[in-house]
Write a structure and sequence with these properties.
Blueprint lengths: L1 E7 L2 E11 L2 E6 L4 E6 L4 E9 L7 E5 L4 H4 L5 E4 L2 E4 L2 E5 L6 H6 L1 E3 L5 E4 L12 E5 L10 E5 L1
Parallel strand pairs: 9-12, 9-13, 11-12
Antiparallel strand pairs: 1-2, 2-3, 3-4, 4-5, 5-6, 7-8, 7-10
Length: 152
């Protein structure tokens, strides 16, 4: 996956490249759970994902946004981690035993199409991203505002 930042309606948004077709790039905006279409002239269009059919951008059934931009960019991300629901764009999980990494990795996902799970990474490198879970044995006090810390 390739990650980028775009300026959309005056906001810097984190997007993930899904694919390219003729003169358009198809990107996923995980915070809003929407499809972003960028043409070769720099025009940006955002669409609601109504249905996913397969894995290609052409496999999305889309529609115009159903909410104003202010609501889309503030949509809540809900993670399921070991059957617990955590509302946060990103999560930092502190573990006692490094062997627990696989347990967390295999039992965690947000209510989004694309997300990342990292081991022992610096959360400040991902402060502007969305849908990142970092599992670490290091208990860091100073986390970016986009992260919520939990203990396992």
């Amino acid at each position: 996956m390739s990650e980028y930042f775009l300026n959309y309606k005056g906001d810097k948004i984190f997007v993930i490249l899904l694919g390219y077709s003729s003169n358009k790039y198809y990107l996923y905006y995980p915070k809003g759970d929407t499809l972003v279409i960028l043409d070769d002239k720099g025009n940006i269009e955002m669409k609601e994902i109504l249905e996913v059919i397969g894995e290609a951008p052409s496999g999305f059934k889309v529609a115009d946004l159903i909410e104003p931009w202010e609501k889309v960019k503030n949509r809540v991300v809900t993670w399921k981690i070991l059957d617990k629901e955590i509302e946060s764009d990103n999560v930092y999980v502190v573990i006692n035993d490094p062997k627990n990494y696989k347990i967390i990795e295999n039992s965690s996902a947000p209510d989004r199409l694309k997300y990342y799970i990292f081991k022992d990474q610096d959360p400040w490198e991902f402060k502007d991203w969305c849908c990142v879970l970092i599992v670490s044995t290091k208990d860091i006090d100073n986390l970016p505002m986009s992260f919520k810390k939990i203990y396992f």
